[in-house]
Sequence to fold (173 residues):
Amino acid sequence: MNNMEIRDVQQTDFPAIAEIYQPHVLNGTATFEETPPSPETMAERHDALRASGHFWICAEIDGTLAGYAYTTQHKARSAYRYTAEDSIYLAPEHSGKGIGTCLLTEVIARCRGLGFREMIAVIGDSGNSGSIGLHRKLGFRHIGTADGIGWKFGRPLDVVYMQRSLMAPGPET
Fold:
């Protein structure tokens, strides 16, 4: 995409980020969150992650946010400090256009540069073929599925776990 820029999230982006995330919360199963957070809550989450050494990036097309991605430490214990967990959300109208690939490619590169050794994808809903396919395309492998551990829209949902080593080159596009 010639007119797309991948950049760090800025404080002024949080209304658009909350707007992108809202349909995923209200209508989707990629997140198990059930109440859409406010832009202020998203900004607080951003600030906490930045303080812990992680980052948020976004894809901007012609001045409009099309999606965003961020990393967290996989678990709170210090032994996990070299393992990053990624999250990616796209505006519905931008799904399937390669934006997720661009965001995840940048996330992988930044994680490598920050000295992370492994990445984990924790994917809500085993039927989330878009996210599973994206992660597989960029070198993640399936390491397990937790059956029915989430509950949303009156039904149980699985969580798919995928992992990618950052120690060796992978299939970045």
Observations:
- The beta strands are 4-8, 56-61, 64-73, 83-90, 118-124, 141-152, 155-165.
- The helical segments are 14-27, 39-51, 99-113, 129-137.
- The CA atoms of residues 101 and 134 lie 7 Å apart.
